[in-house]
């Protein structure tokens, strides 16, 4: 079973890029960057993604200490095949490429409308609110917090996070963290700089099919490595 830093880095980088491009959090970052200061959105997204990547890798690293390594390897192999088949199925059955972008934009629009109504109804309490602001908003911009929270909760429990946990259980966790952070960073910068215009030109179908093929390839590689052992 290969535990090299380079192998973990390469697998994590490829998996992260193909999983995150066209993902909900990718579209959310692109839309937020069109509405708020890009530096705040980029910082919030990156900090959130770095934290989730490290937490995921830490969970994966701890797994072999709680469960026999052979079991974690077989579970990881199974997850790769499941995610691969799932992604291929989604890719072949998707009707259009703009559904997810439109869905994310609609959710963000609904949230912003609700907040704007609340602001209109409470203009007289501005001074009182400023003095009683939550602790975090006294040190971080609301745009940073918004980008951080949307990204963090959007990433938690999705395929890329679970796959990162599996990779860290089976590969060098430091390589997985480095590859994951670099992949997340590249995708986030692309989303923030390119904005909604770039996001709308990305084919979710092609990316989903490519990620499915990659997961299947990882599963085959993991299966063959266990057979060799």
Number of strands: 0
Determine the strand fraction and express it as a percent band.
Answer: under 5%
Oligomer: single chain
Largest sheet: none
Distance between the termini: 7 Å
- What would the average pLDDT be, to the nearest integer? 78
Shape: globular
InterPro entries: GDT1-like
GO molecular function, one term: manganese ion transmembrane transporter activity
Keywords: Membrane, Transmembrane, Transmembrane helix
GO biological process, one term: Golgi calcium ion homeostasis
Name some characteristics of this structure.
229 residues, mainly alpha, calcium ion transmembrane transporter activity, GDT1 family protein, GDT1-like, transmembrane helix
Describe the structure in your own words.
The chain has 229 residues and is mostly helical. Helices cover 82% and strands 0% of the residues. The protein is built from 10 helices and no strands. It has helices spanning 5-20, 24-35, 38-66, 69-93, 99-120, 126-131, 142-155, 159-170, 173-199, 204-228. The longest helix is centred in the first third of the chain and has 29 residues, at 38-66. It starts with a helix and ends with a helix. Mean pLDDT is 78; it is low at 116-132. One of its GO terms (biological process) is Golgi calcium ion transport. Its main location: membrane. It is found in: Membrane. Keywords: Membrane, Transmembrane, Transmembrane helix. GO terms for molecular function: calcium ion transmembrane transporter activity; manganese ion transmembrane transporter activity.
């Amino acid at each position: 079973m290969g535990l090299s830093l380079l192998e973990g880095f390469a697998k994590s980088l490829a998996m992260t890029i193909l999983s995150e491009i066209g993902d909900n959090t990718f579209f959310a970052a692109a839309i937020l960057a069109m509405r708020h200061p890009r530096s705040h959105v980029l910082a919030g997204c990156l900090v959130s993604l770095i934290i989730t990547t490290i937490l995921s890798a830490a969970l994966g690293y701890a797994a072999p200490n709680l469960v026999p390594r052979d079991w974690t390897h077989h579970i990881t192999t199974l997850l790769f095949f499941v995610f691969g088949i799932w992604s291929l199925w989604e890719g072949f059955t998707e009707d259009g490429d703009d559904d997810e972008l439109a869905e994310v934009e609609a959710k963000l629009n609904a949230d912003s409308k609700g907040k704007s109504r609340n602001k209109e109804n409470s203009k007289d309490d501005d001074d009182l609110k400023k003095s009683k602001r939550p602790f975090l908003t006294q040190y971080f911009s609301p745009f940073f917090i918004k980008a951080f929270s949307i990204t963090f909760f959007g990433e938690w429990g999705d395929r890329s996070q679970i796959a990162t946990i599996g990779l860290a259980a089976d590969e060098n966790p430091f390589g997985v963290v480095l590859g994951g952070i670099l992949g997340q960073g590249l995708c986030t910068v692309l989303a923030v700089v390119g904005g909604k215009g770039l996001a709308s030109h990305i084919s979710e179908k092609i990316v989903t099919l490519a990620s499915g093929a990659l997961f299947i390839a990882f599963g085959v590689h993991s299966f063959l490595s266990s057979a060799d052992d």
